[in-house]
Amino acid sequence: MRNLRHDADLCVVGGGMAGVLCAIAAARKGVRVVLMHDRPVFGGNASGEIRVPIGGAYGKNNRETGILEEICLENFYRNPTSNYHVWDSILFEKVYTEPNVTPLMNCSCLKAKTNENSIVSVTGWQLTTETYHTVYAKYYADCSGDGILAPLTGAEFRMGREAKSEYNETIPPDVADSCTMGMSCTFQIRETDSPKPFIAPKWAHTYASDDDLPDCRHFCNGRYSLAEHLWWIELGGDADCIHDTEQLKFELLKIAFGVWDHFKNHGDHGYENWEMDWIEFLPGKRESRRYVGDHVLTQHDVEAGGRFHDVVAYAGWSMDDHFPQGFYYRGGHPTIHHPSPSPWGIPLRSLHSKDFENLFFAGRNVSATHAAFSSCRVIATCAMMGQAVGTAVAQMVNQNKPYREIDVAKLQQTLLFDDCYLPYVARDNKSVLENAEVNHAIVCNARERGDENLWIGKDGDFVKYRFRKPQFVKALRLVFDSDLNRHFVEWLNRSFQQMPHIYPLGEDRFRLPETLIREYQIEMTDADGNVTRETHENHLRFVTVDVNKTLTSIRFIPKSTWGCKDFRMFCVEPILD
Description:
The protein is of the alpha+beta class. The chain has helices spanning 17-28, 66-78, 84-96, 149-153, 164-167, 245-265, 299-303, 370-376, 379-399, 408-417, 430-435, and strands spanning 2-13, 33-36, 101-104, 107-115, 118-126, 131-142, 157-158, 183-184, 187-191, 234-235, 274-279, 284-285, 290-291, 311-315, 319-322, 335-338, 344-347, 359-361, 436-438, 455-457, 463-480, 490-491, 494-495, 502-503, 517-525, 531-537, 542-561, 567-576. Helix 2 (66-78) crosses helix 3.
């Protein structure tokens, strides 16, 4: 057996979407990151092992952006057939090609050392190399979903539902219990051009009639909402959703194979030409441990819109409270969608442990009551928490300031610059117009979503900045229109970011938004009148182009799009030194 030591500024435990964004965000700010992840692929519930669509805030212009949008657009560009193996490879590439990230995959965190109110190190066992990896870091971010560092360090956490009286909420039960939302095993189906038989395993459950499936949960000739993806094959909320996982998985597989057997062989459901393309052998979890942080989010915080001074992320899913019995609940629909505003703000204090100064967390182990958690547990929201934590740690490391002295306003401005929308916080870019004149002021109004904030150009149009005196320009910041209201998949007015579970013949919706500019030119003029031109290809929403020149003017000239007849830009803004 080997023992290896790693020294880092930040150790991220867990490589779901929250962990991936946390690691990348910190690394891009120059921070040394070790990412310890217990699976062979990144993405957690969004990975090819589990395949939950990336849902987030609902409502117009509320789609999450930042690194998450970068990854999703890269997937549309590289993966037009929505192949999950390609999706996994894109996440793999994002982590492995980031110079400041050391990934430790197939490595399960099993031990932590603490000293008073700080974590000193964490140790993981890497199955594939028979190696113990011990990481010594300044800061730790638990993005593991199940909150593994809580029991390993003694940090306080909650599991289950609070009583109504504890936080004066209306959603919880009268008496506190250990019940959570359950886990699901789903499957993926694909349409073919000829009949395909299906023989169920002997151990699968049999649902001989429509009445055997609760709440009439049926597909309709393959055109049932793609977002549904059989989430209702759910169990474990009334059991121990951590320690009973393997037992629950077998029962979930019995149900899943039985459901597909029903669709194929019991009744006329229109699935003669369809086949099961994939089934989930790793259950997707909704809820387990939740840390107790400096602030515990409650139902009241959600309903009030999360108007915190230290907001660093946002949610916007309903308080979607699944019944613990899941599939075996017989009281009607297996969840209640309690209304919530969209968006509502999540504070940094709910992503930091009250017990350990150097312990942060992001994802579904957020500091929240069960009721509030039900609105901020979905993948896109968790991912944005991850980018916020990674950015916060990078700021503390780079400024050599502890958590209690963090400049929250600076952190918020950094997140906004990196294209992370924050409710109630405006981006400050006043210095640009103090030093330059622009022919289209809307491209630097610092409001980067909504049609009212778009510059729309035609062939031959351009955006030009003329500096009042020769000015050193570090970079050009560009925010394109990636159609934040695109609805490739929609259910209950919530749009999903990424991949389908049902593949009809001829499916072609999952592609790059036509509104993106595909090619553009940058024209730069220096004090001697010399003109430099650069042409760039694009498929992303947020881009910074290095300039590093002293200029008298700079022009942005769009050349082509991915299908739209107009050129659409939210931001064209020189970054001045």
